[in-house]
C-alpha cells in the first residue's frame, strides 16, 4: 500500500530530531510549524509502536496546520482502521472518495473496512477500483488487499491477490511468506513448503519461516525434516521456546526419547511451569523404562494440574508396573473421574483389579474398555486372559471368537485362541488357529510359547512350528 511511500526518506538527516522537537512542543504546550512530511513521519513513528492515540493526536495537530492535506487525512483513516474503528474510518474515507475517487489507497482502505464488516461484495468492488487505479507500487497495494482477506479468514481470496502481487514483484518477501501461510491454512502443504522455501532463499534468517516449515513437516509425519527445520529456527534464536517444544515432540514421535528428554529439559528452563512439558517428559522416561523419573514427572504434573487425567493415568501405570496394584487402582480411578472415555485407562484399571484378584471389578473395567474401543487386540486379550486365569476356559475362547469378528482380529488373537482351544481339548480348532497365526506372523510364535510353555511338550505343536520355520513362516499347508 502507498501509505509507506515517504518511508524511504525517514532515515535521512532531514528528519533527524523531528520527533524530539515535536514531543518538546507538546511538553511546553506551544505551537510549532511542521510540514506534512514531518507529520507523516511523526505519525508513522507512533503507528510502528502501536501508539495509535499519539498518532491520532499528531494527525489532529497536522490538520489544524494543513486542513486540506489528503495525505494526513489518509493517515488518520489508516489509524482508525488499525484501531478497528470502522465506522469512523468509513466516514472519513467516504469524504476522501468524493475528493479523490481514483485514489487507490482510499479505495483499498474502504474495501478493507467493508470486508471486516462482512460486506464482501462491496469490498470486492472497492478492491477492483483500487487495482484499476494503482499505477505505482502495485505489488504493495495488491499485497495489502490480500492481507485484508487474511484478516477475515478468506485464504483462497487472499491467494488471488497475493499471487498478483508476486507477479508484480517476484522477490517481495512478505508476499512469499503470506502465500505460504495461506496455502498452509487451506491445507495445501506442498505449496506451503514451496513458498516458505522461496522466502527462505531470500531471507534464510527468518526463524518464524523455519518454524512454520517444521510444523508442516511435523503434520506430514516427516519428523526428520521437521527436526531440521526447528534446528534452523533455533540456530537463529536459541530461546525460541515453541521450536524447542515442537522439536522435543518430533524427537519423541520417532522414538528418540533420550534426545527428546534433553529438549524438554531445555524447554523447561524457559517455561518451568509448563504442564504439557512435564507430562511429555514423563512419557519419554516411561518409554525408556525409567519408571523412577517417569513417576517423578507424572507426580509433578499432577501437583501442577490436579485435573490432568493423563498425569493420573501415567502415575497409575507406573504403580502397576512396580507391582503396586492397590495404589494403581486409586490413581487410575482418579484419572477416570476426570476423563471417563479413556479406553486405555479402563484396560489398565482392569489389570490392576485382576492383580488384586478382584474378578468382578476387573471384568467390569474390561467390558467398559471394549465398549469404548473394540479395535485394539490387547483389550480383548486382557479380558480373555482374566477368564482364562480364573479357569473359565470356555468364556475365554468365546471372548476371542467375538474379537475375531471385529477389527481387532490379528495373529495375536489367533495364537491365544489356539492356546485356549488346547486347554478345552478342541485340538482341531486349535490346529486351525495355530496354522492361521503362523501363516500371518511366524515370529510371534515366541510370545505364544512364552504364554503356554508346556505346549512344547505337544508333538503336533512343535512339528507345526518347525514346518513353518522350514517354509519361511509364510506358506500354508495343503
What report would you give on this structure?
- With 478 residues, the chain is mostly helical.
- It has a domain at 374-478: Serine Threonine Protein Phosphatase 5, Tetratricopeptide repeat (Alpha Horseshoe).
- The chain has 27 helices and no strands.
- Helix 4 (70-82) packs antiparallel against helix 5 (86-99), helix 15 packs antiparallel against helix 16 (275-287) and helix 16 packs parallel to helix 18 (309-321).
- The longest helix is centred in the N-terminal third of the chain and has 14 residues, at 52-65.
- The protein starts with 17 loop residues before the first helix and ends in an 8-residue tail after the last helix.
Features:
478 residues; mainly alpha; Serine Threonine Protein Phosphatase 5, Tetratricopeptide repeat; 27 helices; 0% strand; disordered N terminus; disordered C terminus
Can you summarize this structure?
This protein is mostly helical and 478 residues long. The protein contains 27 helices and no strands.
Topology:
Layout: H1 18-27, H2 36-48, H3 52-65, H4 70-82, H5 86-99, H6 104-116, H7 120-133, H8 138-151, H9 155-168, H10 173-185, H11 189-202, H12 207-219, H13 223-236, H14 241-253, H15 257-270, H16 275-287, H17 291-304, H18 309-321, H19 325-338, H20 343-355, H21 359-372, H22 377-389, H23 393-404, H24 411-423, H25 427-440, H26 445-451, H27 459-470
Helix pairs in contact: 2-3, 2-4, 3-4, 4-5, 4-6, 5-6, 6-7, 6-8, 8-9, 9-10, 10-11, 11-12, 12-13, 12-14, 13-14, 14-15, 15-16, 16-17, 16-18, 17-18, 18-19, 18-20, 19-20, 20-21, 20-22, 21-22, 22-23, 22-24, 23-24, 24-25, 25-27
